[in-house]
Design goal:
Strand content of chain B: under 5%
Mean pLDDT of chain A: 81
Shape of chain A: globular
Number of strands of chain A: 2
Distance between the termini of chain A: 34 Å
CATH class of the largest domain in chain A: Mainly Alpha
Strand order of the largest sheet of chain A: 1-2
Low-confidence stretches of chain B: 366-382
Strand content of chain A: under 5%
CATH architecture of the largest domain in chain B: Orthogonal Bundle
Radius of gyration of chain A: 23 Å
Largest interface: A-B, 45 and 50 residues
Number of strands of chain B: 0
Order of helices and strands of chain A: HHHHHHEHHEHHHHHHHHHH
Number of helices of chain B: 17
Oligomer: heterodimer
CATH class of the largest domain in chain B: Mainly Alpha
CATH topology of the largest domain in chain B: ABC transporter involved in vitamin B12 uptake, BtuC
CATH architecture of the largest domain in chain A: Orthogonal Bundle
Helix content of chain B: over 70%
Helix content of chain A: 55-70%
Largest sheet of chain A: 2 strands, antiparallel
Radius of gyration of chain B: 22 Å
Largest sheet of chain B: none
CATH topology of the largest domain in chain A: ABC transporter involved in vitamin B12 uptake, BtuC
């Protein structure tokens, strides 16, 4: 199925098909991205839901995607070294508390350091349990999630209930300084050209402007850092000797050991980095709220894990996954009626799937996709607004749907989740 | 000697874990200038009069019943190597639908109760079955899908509660379903105290205790005395060996998850049928996650799970007294978390010790231990 090695004389590939699916993987990805924007713009015009591509939705999507992306990046480091990290959620919780505690005393920079340190401590605990003691990775992760919730509640009770600066059992005092934000000059601030174009509501052009303005207007420092961490992780893991050694521990630790890689040490480093990144995701949540609150993470560590799997254990893929879930989450927060417009999107995508499957001759799959597409279309035409309880799980349902469609093509690191003992096979 | 050998490692790990957890939480408390001894004193103080003490015991047992069921649900899946993290969503959705269904029908006494139980088990089994179907047909990891389905279930439950199933008058603080008629209640067991000649406490001992015990015995028999249970355990220890001996791995995944889900459906019922009689916004939450901890502590065996559930229930009971005595009540959560982490590490150490002993035994053929101990079988796969 890999088109990367398609030879030019491959039969049956017309010029249009060649333009769309030929070339490198990156060109195909670009086409898919462009196609998504066009379809989204069309859905926006048909349904009249401007929230679908407005800059405020996009800005919210970015805000919601970053913590998920950071958690997923944390998962990437751990799982590439062969350690499954269900404890991301717990490490993120530790990160939020650390950020709140350091932040109210010494400002936002200290909050970043505090959150990252607390997350790294959670990672260290996971490493001790899984690498040194050989505990099942999922069990250790679940235990860390329970423990983290207990620790932060305990520390808050102890340090905040009688604190003169405010706070209480479930929240810290407010951060003493706010992190700075950046905007693109001329385009998104000052004259704000993109904002003007967006407000014209032209097909496609305004949509693109909305997306661009959303991701370039008053963006936090940590957002910029998080976005830069994606290519940085790629370079570190796939273009350095350190990265090769780390990944070899996730693919075949026994072989790595015979080649002189210190497997235990590499796994420790990877899992501590994993915790630090998840903690940074927690810091980001604290930055948004300006305060630590209990249950601020709300399962984002788990969604990060799903984004990692969705992204096939690669930095670019997990960023796309985080973006998708961030978008779904932003949409449900900003406008409940816009979620209904998503049904139209689902209908269009499934109709395309039905047609392609019919051409390939898969009658059954084509019929199923077609029926669901018609169902989604009917739902779009008849439902006005979904009730809040239903809308709240839009991102999770999206995750589940996407995973169930994509799971079989994914390839996790070979030794992911296996307990490795030196000298035993 | 043989019995001691078998019990030794089984007891060693949990006891070690509890000791380690006590030490760690004491150190944490001491470091934060809370006197651990005073805290433990408050935790074991059950009151002065016999009535107060019996009440405390009833509170503990009442809390232990749902925890035991939650542990059982998780353990059944664990024994096959499946992680059913979705127990939380399964029981919450099952309880609200069972509560609404129970309030909507009028049936004679026992039939009404059975009806509610069946509805709850069905709903939770279907919800868990979704996870299994996604796993065997689409290859989605059950860990991820059950976590996602948790969110979906909680969202659905909140929608059902505020929408179609809303039974309380508008404007009230606590939103709830309609109250189940009295024929659908499970009566308390307080007559026992009169028979035993003890003080009869004001609080009712849940009649669901009996159903939970029956469930525990049934699961134990099913796992240890039937072909299905053997296949299930075999698949958990070595999937490849199991399928080589003719076990259909996919069918086993579906059956196990359905069973695990059906048990999960029971978790909310002790509270629903024994005291609240309606599902409300402040219905007991978090039992699914605690169930994972209880199952781990109980080493996935019904007897162990019962003990673990009692320990966790004892810890939970001390929340209120600790708050009254002005101590941080979250000590309890830390304690529970540390126990779980300590027990999994201790299990691993115990396994290695047992393995070394086994290796020594096989090295001296004369002292070859009789086969059949669980630990020896666990070693085969490692």
């Amino acid at each position: 199925m890999s088109t990367a090695v398609t030879t030019p004389e491959a039969p049956g590939r017309g010029p249009i098909n060649g333009l769309l699916t030929g070339g490198s993987r990156y060109r195909r990805l670009l086409w898919i991205l462009a196609g998504a924007v066009v379809v989204l713009a069309a859905v926006r015009v048909i349904s009249g839901e401007d929230a679908l591509t407005s800059s405020s939705t996009m800005a919210a999507a970015l805000l919601l995607a970053v913590p998920i992306g950071l958690a997923a990046l944390g998962g990437l480091f751990a799982e590439r070294a062969g350690v499954v990290n269900i404890g991301l959620e717990g490490m993120m919780i530790l990160g939020t508390w650390g950020a709140g505690w350091a932040g109210y005393q010494w400002g936002w920079a200290a909050a970043l350091v505090g959150g990252v340190l607390f997350g790294a401590l959670g990672g260290l605990l996971h490493a001790v349990a899984t690498v040194t003691f050989g505990v099942d990775h999922v069990i250790s992760g679940v235990a860390i999630n329970i423990l983290a919730a207990g620790i932060v509640r305990f520390l808050s009770e102890l340090l905040y209930t009688k604190n003169v600066k405010g706070g209480g059992v479930t929240q810290s005092p407010a951060l003493s300084s706010k992190p700075p934000t950046l905007s693109l000059p001329v385009l998104s601030s000052g004259p704000d050209l993109l904002g003007h174009v967006e407000r014209l509501h032209w097909f496609l052009i305004s949509d693109v402007a909305g997306v661009l303005r959303g991701v370039s207007h008053e963006v936090g420092v940590l957002t910029v850092l998080a976005v830069l961490l994606i290519p940085a992780s790629y370079l570190l893991l796939w273009r350095t000797a350190f990265g090769l050694r780390l990944r070899s521990c996730g693919e075949n630790p026994w072989a790595a050991d015979t080649l002189g890689v210190a497997v235990y040490r590499m796994k420790y480093i990877a899992v501590v980095i994993s915790g630090a990144l998840a903690g940074m995701g927690g810091v980001f949540l604290v930055f948004i709220a300006g305060i630590y609150r209990e249950n601020q993470t709300n399962g984002r560590g788990f969604i990060g894990l799903a984004a990692l799997i969705f992204g096939n254990w690669r930095p670019g893929g997990l960023a796309a996954g985080a973006g998708l879930f961030g978008f779904a989450d932003a949409l449900q927060l900003r406008s409940r009626s816009a979620v209904v417009a998503l049904l139209l999107l689902v209908a269009i995508l499934l109709a395309v799937l039905a047609i392609t499957q019919a051409i390939k001759g898969n009658v059954l799959q084509s019929v199923i996709a077609g029926v669901v597409a018609v169902g989604a279309l009917i739902a779009f035409l008849t439902i006005d607004v979904l009730p809040p309880g239903i809308v709240s799980f839009t991102p999770h349902l999206t995750t589940l749907l996407v995973l169930s469609l994509a799971s079989q093509r994914l390839r996790p690191p070979q030794a992911d989740g296996l307990v490795y003992r030196r000298g035993e096979s | 000697m043989n019995a001691l050998r078998r019990l030794g490692p089984a007891l060693f790990a949990p006891v070690l874990a509890v000791v380690v957890a006590v030490v760690i939480s004491s150190v944490v408390m001491a470091a934060l200038q809370v006197n651990p001894l005073r805290v433990f004193e408050v935790m074991v103080d059950f009151g002065e009069t016999p009535s107060q003490q019996i009440t405390a015991l009833v509170v503990i047992v009442n809390r232990a019943v749902p925890l035991f069921l939650a542990g059982l649900a998780v353990a059944v899946a664990f024994r096959m190597g499946l992680f059913n993290i979705g127990v939380e969503g399964q029981y919450r959705l099952a309880t609200i639908i069972a509560a609404a269904a129970g309030a909507a029908v009028s049936l004679p006494g026992p039939v009404h109760v059975v009806f509610i139980i069946v509805v709850a088990m069905l709903v939770a089994a279907i919800w868990a079955g979704l996870v299994a179907v996604l796993k065997v047909t689409r290859g989605v990891s059950e860990v991820i899908s059950s976590i996602m389905l948790n969110f979906v279930a909680l969202g659905l439950a909140s929608y059902l509660l505020t929408g179609p199933f809303r039974g309380s008058a508008p404007g009230t603080n606590i939103v709830g379903t309609k109250v189940i008629p009295e024929s659908g209640w499970v009566p308390g067991l307080n007559k026992i105290f009169d028979v035993l000649g003890l003080a009869n406490p004001p609080r009712q001992l849940y009649g669901f205790l009996i159903i939970a015990v029956v469930a525990g015995v049934l699961v134990s028999v099913l796992l240890n005395r039937t072909r299905f249970g053997y296949d299930l355990r075999a698949s958990g220890i070595s999937p490849s060996a199991a399928s080589a001996s003719g076990v259909n791995a996919r069918a086993m995944v579906v059956k196990t998850m359905l069973l695990s889900g059906a048990i999960a459906g029971l978790i909310g019922l002790p509270d629903l049928l024994g005291s609240t009689h309606a599902y409300t916004t402040n219905f007991t939450a978090g039992l699914g996650f605690l169930g994972i901890a209880v199952a781990l502590l109980g080493r996935n065996k019904p007897g162990g799970i019962a003990l673990a559930a009692l320990l966790f229930a004892f810890l939970d009971r001390s929340l209120v007294p600790l708050q009254i005595a002005d101590y941080p009540a979250s000590v309890v959560t830390i304690f529970q978390g540390t126990i779980v982490l300590a027990v999994v590490i201790a299990n691993e150490i115990a396994r290695r010790v047992a393995r070394r002993t086994a290796e020594r035994d096989t090295a001296e053929p004369a002292a070859a231990a009789p086969a059949g101990s669980t630990d020896a079988r666990q070693e085969v796969q490692a």
